[in-house]
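Example 3.2
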Amino acid sequence: MNFKSYDILSTLVPGFILLLVYLPFLGFIYNKDYVVGYTAIAFGLGYLLNTLGSWLEDFYFFTWGGRPSCNLLNGKSIWKIKQYNHSVLKVNLESKTVNPNPDNKELFSIAMRHAFSQKDTRMEDFSNGYAFARTMLTCSLLISIVILINYYNDWRAYLTIIIVLIFWYRAKQRGYYFSKEVLQVYSKIENI
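Structure, written as tokens:
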């Protein structure tokens, strides 16, 4: 098995954050002598967070007003992120399918298939950034639930809602950045 540094860090960081919040909740005190065991547990928790984030992706898309890729193909944008050639791009993508009524999800998968065939693009970095942001959003959701349950009578516990909203917006941005990068690489391939 071959791990990249991104795979390790993107799993360990959220896993350790979750572990450090859940230890007191479960009645344990952090002990530096167990750092190897904590690292193994954090890796497992981080992997679980990544899985949960993947499962919650449709819920996140719902809260974002749709899939970033589909929204960009429809000409919708968010702050600083817009696909200016969406009309021409969509017509080009529709010509690549045999389906008479393709949806945007199918069109984006065609663009992604073509774009990922290219070497030396930034798409893997954008994909990793989106996956990490989604995992951190999931982590912040779980942490805020624990904090709000334990400290519901302390006003400071409600500050976690602001943190969740920040992670929510950042994950949304990262989803749009990744989708836009795929569409830009495809546009470059097709000279659109």
